[in-house]
Amino acid sequence: MQKKIALTVNGRPYRIEIDIRESLLDVLRDRLQFTGVKQGCSVGECGACTVLIDGTPVNSCIYLAAWADGKTVTTIEGIARDGHLSPVQEAFVEEGAIQCGFCTPGLVLSTTAMVESGRSFTHDEVRRELSGHLCRCTGYQKIIDAAERALREAEKAAE
């Protein structure tokens, strides 16, 4: 069964006809060419497919595209501004929290959601917020360091 949906991805409106069984991941990658969204486990366990829907991190592999009707979706391609990395992306680079890069988009987006929430997070809360992401290359410490750095820098900028 087909359905027409309207959604905004990275600030650009789209109207697209989908199969009601299609995941948001498949629509973003295969139909709209946002290949920064990665397919990992396909069951919502690894976080590689994380996108922001109305500012909230969501595993797009288990989120039906039909549910995104009327929503705002942000992928990794949508957080850099005017050719410059976002502060969160910069923190990941500066802390060496990137190796192969497969898990990085999801981690950056989840960290972006924390930063944009405007609240403070303890070390344990940062770890909990990022616990839905699997990384096979790093030891996670640099990822946590990058997230905490981004949060600290956002707090300083808000002062």
UniProtKB/TrEMBL annotation:
GO terms for molecular function: 2 iron, 2 sulfur cluster binding; metal ion binding; xanthine dehydrogenase activity. Residues 3-79 form the 2Fe-2S ferredoxin-type domain. Coiled coil: none annotated. It holds the Pfam family Fer2. It comes from the Bacteria. GO terms for biological process: purine nucleobase metabolic process. Keywords: 2Fe-2S, Iron, Iron-sulfur, Metal-binding, Oxidoreductase. This is Xanthine dehydrogenase. It comes from Mesoterricola silvestris.
